Amino acid sequence: MAHAATQTVFMGTPPSAQKALQKAGADANQFFPTAIKVHVGDTVKFTPVGFHSAEFPAAGKAPTGLLAPAGTVSGANDAAGNPFWFNGLPQLGFAPPLVTSGFGKSFTVPSANGVRSGLPLVNKPKPMSVKFTKAGVYTYYCNVHHGMKGTVSVVAKAKKVPTAKAIGLLVNAQVKAAKAIAAALPKTPVPANTVLVGPEKGGVTLYTFLPGTLSVKPGTTVTFTMPVNAREDHTASTGPGDPNDQKVKSYLGDLAAGFNAPVIPGQATYSSEAPGTTASLSPTLHGNGFWSSGVMDAVAASPPAQSSTVTFSTAGTYTFHCLIHTFMHGQVVVG
C-alpha cells in the first residue's frame, strides 16, 4: 500500500530557472509541471514564484475573473481639463474573491465551493496545499493570466505515479522548452508600422516592445498590438514621466502605481481615446502629450481590445511604457 505523498507545482517559472529567463528579458506564465499525476490521498503544494494564482472552480463554474467593477469612473479629466470619454463607465479593481488569500492554508479537492489561492498580495506568500480525495482529472487555472492552466490526474493507490525525481525531470524539460522559446521571440516577424507589445508564444513572454525603436515619417499611423493567444495583459502608454522612477512623481508613474491599488484609475485601464477614434499624437495631446492604448489582451470575449492605433503628427521621439509591467518600454522616432 502506497503512503500519502506530497508533490510540488510551481506557480510560474521555478526559482532555479528564473535568472536565465530574466537575462533573456522573458518569463513563463505556466505551471511547472503543467500536468501531474498523484495517488488518491496525496497532497500537491502550489508554490508561488510570481504574480500568479491557482483556482479549482466548483463543478460547472468558470474560474474567477481578475477584475470586477468597483464603482463608477467620475471626474476623470485630462491635463487640459477636458473630461475623458470613459467617465460614467465602471471603475475596475481586483475581484473580491481573489483578495481573500488561500496561501499558507490547506484544502481538499473535490470541493463543492471550489478552491482558490487568491492573489499573492503579501511578501513571500506560503504554498497552498491541496489534498486530493477522489480519483479523477482536475483542471485548475491562474486567474491573472488567461490560458494558464494545469491538470492534476488522481489515480487509485494501486496504480503507478511518477516519482518526485521523474516530476523533476518533467519540470526541467518544460524549462528547457521555455528557454528555447524565449531565445527565439526577438526574431518574431512584425508587420510594417506595427509594434508588437510583449511578444509571446505558449505562455512565454518577452517583456519588451518589438521593434524596440520604430522610425516613421510624420502622419504615419502605428498599430500597437498584442500577440495572438497572449496570456499577459499590457498597455502601450506615452506621456510625462518614467513609471520606473520611484523617486520622481509623474503622470505615468501615478497611473502605473494605480495597478497596485484596490481600485485602478480609469486613465490606466481604459484607452485614452473613445472607441472608433484615432488620435493625432503630439506633445500637446490631452494637454501633456498623454496617449494610452488602455489595457489590451488577446481574449476575444473580454472587454479590452487586442490592438490600438495612433497617428504621429509631430516630429520627435516618443517613449512608450507598459503601465502594468513598467520595465517594458520602446520608442517611436518621428522624423
From TrEMBL:
| SUPFAM superfamilies documented for this protein | Cupredoxins
Taxonomically, what lineage is the organism?
Bacteria, Bacillati, Actinomycetota, Thermoleophilia, Solirubrobacterales
Instruction: Give UniProt keywords alphabetically.
Output: Copper, Metal-binding
Q: Which InterPro entries match?
A: BlueCu_1, Cupredoxin, ET_Amicyanin
- The Blue (type 1) copper domain is annotated at 127-154
Could you confirm whether the keyword Metal-binding appears in this record? yes
Q: Which organism is it from?
A: Paraconexibacter antarcticus
Please state what the protein is called: Plastocyanin/azurin family copper-binding protein
Any single Pfam family the record assigns to this protein:
Copper-bind
Q: Does the keyword Metal-binding apply?
A: yes
